[in-house]
Specification:
407 residues, alpha/beta, Purple Acid Phosphatase, chain A, domain 2, 6-stranded mixed beta sheet
Length: 407
């Protein structure tokens, strides 16, 4: 069976206030094109379909239009809710759509109910398990309270299979293992079946980026690679960079577009997976090559606005780091004359060498006038002696202060 793995579309997202919907539409058109060209049987979308729980109408229309295009090509779709999605809203029509070849799963308690996908080339159906984003405090108790699967005497028996030393409280690791126990039980009733898990979580060892929403504090959100043992292919979502963590078997596809400057060097792509008869995955990472690129440029304002070496950034979304000693007036407006898509400006002047505390105290004690004292302060802040023009300004300011309200 052939499948295309994508995730984290974040439809409706903006970048520094600018809508990305047109670029997202371009990316989804490319994904549909690759699915058709690759003759895939299935497209899996591993969560964060939208950027927020209540997405704009235009984002919903884009999503449904994309699903319609995939189905018109005879391609099945399995999608799950991510931590940005409303589990209820995205899956409200799942009972109806699943009969038409589209599954959008938000119910955690249905994780052990697979979608059986029949490969177009023949062979046994593949069991695809949609496991939406898990909220441990809510979903851990819910999974324990679920009716015991066939062959299990009680729900408590599920908990007994957790690794020794498992903490009593629910974590992402514990909750994920609880969900996977039900999935493995279902697989046992399907001897010889190949398996695909679609999940949205942070697996230990993965590399994150600035544009991902933190799942918890102190890395207790991490789930071990070992928790996913026994699944032929694990299609992950949540981390925005394409990466694999257990060879090609367990991987993140990453986002179709960069959503922060921390993703500037990402090569946005999808993964086309061929599952052999024994379940071994062979993976091709296919770049999407769509959307506006991101580029960070650094230098003085005059250099950035004139140096030909920065010409390649003209069409990119630009983050500029200005190294001028003082921030120039109207810096962003002047930058945008050359880089119309400049969206972020940072000022990092040259490092200032300041005198030590003892040296500063000595100079202050020895200062013979308010002007000399002010000059010492300016020199300490700027890391260089005050210029003649600056001393003149300081003299005028001190004279005006001395006159007080005489005017």
């Amino acid at each position: 069976m052939r499948l295309l793995h994508t995730s984290d579309w974040h439809l409706g997202r903006s970048f520094h206030g600018a809508s990305l919907l047109d670029e997202q539409a371009e990316a989804l058109d490319r994904i549909v094109e690759l699915a058709r060209e690759g003759a895939v049987d299935l497209v899996v979308i591993a969560g964060d379909l939208y950027d927020r729980a209540i997405p704009p109408a235009e984002a919903v229309s884009l999503f449904t239009d994309t699903l319609a295009q995939l189905r018109s090509a005879g391609i099945a779709v399995v999608a799950i809710a991510g931590n940005h999605d409303s589990h209820v809203r995205v899956s409200v029509y799942d009972p109806l759509l699943s009969a038409l070849g589209v599954t959008i799963r938000g119910a955690v308690t249905r994780a052990a109910e697979p979608v059986l996908v029949q490969p177009a080339g023949g062979g046994a159906a593949v069991a695809v398990y949609p496991l939406p984003y898990l909220e441990p405090v809510v979903d851990g108790p819910r999974l324990l309270a679920a009716p015991a699967p066939e062959g299990c005497d009680s729900a408590e028996e599920v908990a007994l299979e957790l690794p020794a030393g498992t903490p009593a409280r629910f974590s992402h690791e514990v909750t994920t293992r609880l969900a996977l126990q039900g999935i493995r039980r279902d697989l046992k009733r399907r001897p010889g079946s190949r398996s695909v898990l679609v999940a949205h979580t942070f697996v230990a060892g993965g590399q994150g980026s600035d544009s991902e929403r933190e799942l918890s504090v102190g890395q207790v959100d991490r789930v071990s690679v070992e928790a996913f043992a026994g699944i032929d292919y694990v299609a992950l979502g949540h981390l925005h960079g394409s990466q694999q963590l257990d060879g090609p078997r367990l991987a993140y596809s990453g986002t179709p577009l960069p959503y922060s400057f921390s993703e500037e060097r990402h090569r946005k792509s999808v993964r086309i997976v061929e599952l052999a008869a024994d379940g071994t995955p062979a993976v091709e990472v296919v770049p999407l090559g769509v959307g506006r690129s991101l580029q960070t440029i650094e230098g003085t304002l005059a250099t950035l606005c004139s140096d030909p070496s920065f010409e390649g950034a003209r069409e990119a979304r630009v983050r500029a780091i200005l190294t001028d000693e003082a921030l120039p007036l109207q810096a962003m407006a002047r930058l945008r004359e050359r880089f119309p898509n400049a969206v972020e400006l940072r000022h990092q002047p040259p490092a200032v060498e300041r005198s030590s505390g003892d040296e500063r105290s000595r100079r202050i004690r020895e200062a013979r006038s308010p002007l000399e004292l002010a000059g010492l302060f300016l020199a300490d802040q700027q890391g260089r002696p005050a210029t003649a023009a600056e001393l003149d300004l300081l003299r005028l300011a001190l004279e005006a202060a001395g006159r007080g309200g005489e005017r």
